[in-house]
Amino acid sequence: MMQKLCKAAATATVLLAAAPAFSLQSDSRQPIEIEADSGSLDQKNQTTTFSGNVIIKQGTLNIHAAAVTVSRNDKGEQQMKASGSPVRFSQTLDGDKGTVNGQGNTVEYASATGLVKLTGNAQVKRGGDIAQGSVITYNTRSEVYTIDGTAKSGVRSAAKSGRVSVVIQPSSKP
After folding, report:
1. How far apart are CA 174 and CA 171, in angstroms?
2. Is the pLDDT confidence value at 119 over 60?
3. Where does the signal sequence lie (predicted)?
4. Rounded CA gap, 158 and 119, in Å?
5. What is the pTM of this model?
């Protein structure tokens, strides 16, 4: 039982790598808490699955999903897929920069590429800034975001027009 719990917690750390680059530094030193209606570990296939109102917390990072699957290949590379209606996450940022909130019908992360992908009704908010589209991809290594609308991806956009929608507030500094 303890081995399963430790393995599940270890594989859930891939979720936390998907968090924004400017999250609170202290979050990574906090324990990972996972709650779900059920969970399973397949050691042979190196896959952990949580389902039913999955809640993952580490410091200020909160992830809510219907189901989360984390797998690892022979090279130690991890992949995570969370699904829900929608998957929601929030995290406090360093330097009094507020909180980032996001959502997507599915959220995927691959450690090999460092890409986080929110698909279906994708949205990220920080303060008054909002990015919406059908797919939002974030490269955690280069810190580059790309946003696609319905026409390009074929997936429903969070923006009512089906196109990419971005609102950027003016800088408070002169």
Report:
1. 7
2. yes
3. 1-23
4. 10
5. 0.77
